[in-house]
Amino acid sequence: MLVRVILLSLLVLFYNQAYAFFDYGEVDNQVSEIVPKEVKTFYDGLTTEDRAVLKKVLSKGSTYNNVSEVLNDLKNGSSSLYDKAVALVTDFRSTMSKLGSNSTKFIDETVLQIQRALGETFSIQKVKAEANVAVARYQALDDATKNELKEAFPVVATIINNIGGRIVGNHSQLK
């Protein structure tokens, strides 16, 4: 099982995988609205080589046992992508060490959801199903935990709030 520190790596990889579909018009408007501008900026800043390495790592996402394995694959493929990933992991570890137990539990459960969404093959339907579950869990959190998560991970909170707004506004789940 992946350790929770891989969450940020998985989130970045997941968002980049979802964003990659935008280039080919394969993602509908519902999904395009949940991907934050930071992801687009990050993805646009990658070289062609970095994108190829990222795609390779994504294709093996369910085979990694820990963050070191992910980082080693990144390092073997692209030193610049590796450096970015190390900075993200370091940042993430620092942030995680400051969170309370409810926030940590939410993140742990979200890691499992991301793993399911990435699974063997990337599927928009799986992503949407897992997003709906994550939003429901997030909306059930107390305000203090939501605020803690929002302060710690503003991009993730934005995504969840965007999805939640769509669900509440449409009185239905993402379809």
TrEMBL record:
Keywords: Coiled coil, Lipid-binding, Secreted, Signal. Residues 1-20 form the signal peptide. It comes from the Eukaryota. It is found in: Secreted. The keyword Secreted applies. GO terms for molecular function: lipid binding. One of its GO terms (cellular component) is extracellular region. Belongs to the fatty-acid and retinol-binding protein (FARBP) family. This is Fatty-acid and retinol-binding protein 1. It comes from Bursaphelenchus xylophilus.
